């Protein structure tokens, strides 16, 4: 209950002491009864803006308290037993927080925030950047179209001109918790053989979060998500325990793909023919770390150099050991028909299921089964948390297949996986695994191919042994960081393939030159009996904070090359580099690379020229469009079809907004902008960049929090005021002034408080705008700004504003 304060008006230096209204200041934090749009802040977490009604309590009609509805109480993240204790008043519409001792509320109308302090004992599990499911936001309805387009042109002396345009992306719609998606990819090629083109809609699917189960439901065409069996394309349904719905420290990891580009190059990552990543990279080592953490299985990587050469290799992205907490069961269930082409299921019905059960503190039991016609596979194993020594899992899988032309085949496969971060040694083993398969062991992919082709069976490799490891190590005393990725695959019926990639990097200072760096990278790629070895050495010398000189030397199976160049960052959005390279006995190659982080697209361009050999150019444009019931905007994006936030600045254009650490984007002509690549189920922040805000624009609460479900289109509105600031005098029709302490409001927002003799300092002033003047709990009169505002708004001759009574 707020304690009423009495003011000694004799101490006020006011000429008209009889014309004073201190009603809104009489009680600390007092808010007049009514409905207000406010952000609800529970401890440090925010719930989106919603209408909050303030009502006088039954025992004090002069007071006013916030009515916390049952719907709001559900979003606070209370434990079920705590929520059950809450009683309600005002016909069951307002919560009585006295049933939760220690819980308090504080309302701040100036910042439109209702703060609720709740003892931690009443709340569900929470982490610094994670909210319980009660606060997850499914976003608003909308449609999206994300794209990644790459154009490459090469004019070679021997092979003539070659133009290639490729693109891929995601289009979709959000309806409540459902995400409807369709993936597409296309290509157009024109060369001496003519022109060719194709466009494929290669995946149609829908998914949604099942919050109560910490799982995801998928319908339509997808790739089998499995940690124990082989992945295949199928049409059907899956329900999968979703690690991303767990607190951050219990989640999995996203795979990394690394390599070395000899020239400006296009890197394409596919999985079973589906493009999941494509972009231009500059010469030198590259490390792609922004793949979706849901990606698993074997990835095919293709690096197309602008000189016409191509690198191809595979990366295994198997997940870390499949462990579960005590009493927890994680599972993956799928049913459907295999599909060789887009949405054309064929073959027998397939069912799969796998689980991980946390038996005790540190031990997990793993198991799974897969059936498809006359094919059956069973897997069983265990996982063990080794505490200070990491985590390990072992499992054995046996397959039974009955084929029409070879009869019954029974075989086994065994695997061991390990993961550990050794903080005391600055070392992280992201994943290490080994698998051995007997010759008669048959994966579901091989079985389906044999059924389809029979005696015309396409001879895919019969897996024998697989080794894989990713290692990161810091030698802090030496200032050296090391990275190693190793993958080796042997087969029963063809030569082995292997790939290892290693890099060492060191930063150091020489005199006044700070943060110089040297990098040594090496990789070996073994495919079909051929070995490609490359050694890469680079030196980077920064010249200030925005420019640098770099030198590199590369030696490999195709010869040796030296490069020298200049890098210049123009600002936080634009950068370029130019360089030249030489190979023994050949003419030098000149190249340039330019990148721009725009509001509506990420753009990379490159060009190369080699006298007497070729000239080439490349362009990559990555962006998207999002349209909702609240508006639409073009935007840049990295994760096609991913989670995003639409920001609304109430029609004010050009407002810089940012989130997730990326460069700011600006609202469009309609005051809308979209922040993409938002982390799912994390507590994220977005805000207005006050340092670059225009002088005539003010932001009332410039930062907002949000936790979105996967694929959601979130929506947040920022209170933004645009316009001049000026001094004015408000006078009523009878010549009197509004009382001292009266409020001046624009669209329900307070923009000034009347002082002595009607004087008021107004903000957010625009020509022709109407403002309400309120005292004694109601709007008493209205002022209208002139169409031409004074040139000197703070001068001695204050603007006179007649206040027309509301009854007139």
Task: Give a short synopsis of this structure.
The protein has three helices and 55 strands.
Describe what you observe in this structure.
This protein has 808 residues and is mainly β. The protein folds into four domains: 31-124, Ubiquitin-like (UB roll) (Roll); 128-204 and 580-721, Outer membrane usher protein FimD, plug domain (Immunoglobulin-like); 214-248 and 256-569, no CATH class; 723-805, Immunoglobulin-like (Sandwich), CATH 2.60.40. It contains three helices and 55 strands. β9 and β10 (178-191) form a beta hairpin. The longest helix has 10 residues, at 444-453. The relative contact order is 0.09. The mean pLDDT is 84. Residues 6-150 form the PapC N-terminal domain.
Beta percentage is: over 45%
Shape: globular
How many strand segments? 55
Rg over CA atoms, rounded to whole Å, is 32 Å
Number of helices: 3
Q: Name the poorly predicted regions.
A: none
Q: Give a short account of the largest sheet.
A: 24 strands, antiparallel, barrel
Helix content: under 10%
Count of folded domains = 4
Could you tell me the mean pLDDT? 84
Q: State the separation between the terminal residues, measured CA to CA.
A: 38 Å
**Overall SS class:** mainly beta
List the keywords.
Immunoglobulin-like, mainly beta, 808 residues, 24-stranded antiparallel beta barrel, seven-stranded mixed β-sheet, PapC_N_sf, fimbrial usher porin activity, 4 domains
């Amino acid at each position: 209950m707020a304690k009423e304060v009495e003011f000694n008006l004799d101490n006020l230096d006011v000429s008209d002491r009889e014309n004073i209204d201190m009603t809104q200041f009489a009680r600390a934090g007092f808010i007049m009864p009514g409905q207000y749009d406010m952000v609800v802040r529970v401890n440090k977490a925010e719930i989106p803006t919603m209408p909050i009604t303030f009502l006088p309590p039954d025992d004090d009609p002069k007071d006013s308290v916030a009515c916390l509805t049952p719907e709001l109480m559900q979003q606070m993240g209370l434990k079920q037993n705590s929520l059950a204790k809450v009683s309600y008043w005002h016909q069951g519409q307002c919560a009585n927080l006295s049933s939760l001792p220690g819980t308090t509320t504080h309302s701040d109308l100036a910042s439109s925030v209702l703060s609720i302090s709740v003892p931690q004992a009443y709340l569900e599990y929470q982490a610094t950047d994670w909210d319980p499911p009660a606060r997850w936001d499914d976003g608003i309805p909308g449609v999206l179209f994300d794209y990644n387009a790459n154009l490459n042109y090469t004019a070679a002396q021997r092979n003539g001109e070659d133009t290639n345009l490729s693109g891929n992306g995601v289009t979709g719609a959000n309806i409540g918790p459902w995400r409807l998606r369709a993936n597409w990819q296309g290509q157009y090629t024109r060369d001496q053989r003519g022109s060719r083109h194709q466009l494929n809609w290669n995946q149609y699917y829908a998914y949604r979060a099942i919050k109560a189960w910490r799982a995801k439901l998928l319908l339509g065409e997808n790739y089998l998500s499995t940690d124990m069996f082989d992945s295949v394309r199928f049409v059907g349904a899956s329900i999968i325990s979703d690690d991303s719905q767990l607190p951050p420290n219990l989640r999995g990891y996203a795979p990394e793909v690394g390599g070395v580009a000899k020239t400006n190059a296009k890197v394409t990552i596919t999985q079973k023919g589906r493009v999941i990543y494509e972009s231009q990279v500059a010469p030198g080592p590259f490390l792609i770390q922004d793949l979706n953490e849901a990606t698993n299985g074997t990835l095919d990587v293709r690096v197309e150099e602008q000189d016409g050469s191509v690198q191809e290799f595979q990366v295994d992205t198997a997940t870390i050991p499949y462990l579960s907490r005590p009493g927890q069961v994680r599972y993956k269930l799928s049913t459907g028909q295999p599909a060789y082409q887009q949405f054309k299921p064929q073959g027998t019905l397939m069912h799969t299921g796998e689980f991980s059960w946390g038996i005790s503190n540190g031990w997990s039991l793993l198991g799974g089964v897969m059936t498809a016609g006359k094919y059956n596979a069973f897997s069983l194993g265990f996982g063990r948390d080794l505490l200070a020594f990491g985590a390990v899992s072992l499992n054995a899988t046996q397959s039974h297949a009955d084929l029409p032309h070879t009869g019954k085949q029974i075989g086994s496969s065994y695997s061991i996986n390990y993961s550990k971060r050794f903080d005391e040694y600055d070392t992280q083993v992201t994943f290490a695994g080994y698998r051995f398969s007997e010759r008669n062991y048959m994966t579901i992919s091989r079985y389906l191919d044999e059924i389809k082709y029979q005696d015309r069976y396409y001879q895919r490799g019969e897996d024998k042994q697989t080794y894989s490891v990713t290692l990161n190590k810091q030698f802090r005393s030496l200032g050296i960081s090391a990275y190693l990725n190793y993958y080796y695959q042997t087969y029963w019926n063809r030569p082995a393939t292997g790939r290892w990639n290693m890099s060492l990097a060191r930063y150091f200072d020489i005199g006044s030159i700070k943060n110089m760096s040297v990098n040594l990278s090496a990789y070996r790629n073994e495919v079909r009996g051929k070995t490609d070895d490359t050694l890469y050495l680079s030196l980077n010398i920064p010249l200030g904070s925005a420019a640098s000189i770099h030198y590199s030397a590369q030696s490999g199976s195709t010869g040796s090359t030296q490069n020298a160049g200049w890098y210049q960052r123009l600002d936080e959005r634009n950068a370029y580099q130019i360089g030249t390279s030489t190979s023994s006995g050949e003419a030098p190659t000149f190249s340039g690379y330019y990148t721009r982080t725009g509001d509506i697209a990420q753009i990379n361009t490159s060009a190369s020229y080699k006298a007497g050999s070729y000239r080439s150019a490349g362009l990559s444009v990555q962006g998207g469009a999002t349209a909702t019931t609240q508006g639409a905007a073009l935007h840049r994006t990295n994760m096609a079809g991913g989670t995003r936030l639409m920001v609304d600045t109430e029609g004010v254009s050009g407002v810089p907004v940012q989130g997730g650490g990326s460069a700011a984007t600006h609202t469009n002509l309609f005051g809308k902008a979209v922040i993409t690549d938002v982390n799912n189920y994390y507590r994220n922040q977005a805000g207005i960049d006050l340092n670059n805000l225009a002088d005539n624009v003010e932001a009332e609460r410039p930062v907002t929090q949000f936790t979105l479900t996967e694929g959601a289109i979130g929506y947040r509105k920022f209170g933004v005021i645009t316009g001049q600031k000026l001094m004015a005098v408000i006078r009523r029709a009878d010549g009197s002034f509004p009382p001292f302490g009266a409020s001046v409001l624009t669209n329900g927002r307070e923009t000034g408080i009347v002082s002595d003799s009607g004087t008021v300092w107004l903000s957010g002033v625009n020509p022709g705008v109407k403002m309400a003047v309120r005292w004694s709990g109601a709007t008493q009169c209205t002022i209208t700004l002139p169409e031409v505002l004074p040139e000197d708004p703070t001068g001695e001759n204050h603007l006179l504003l007649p206040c027309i009574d509301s009854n007139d």
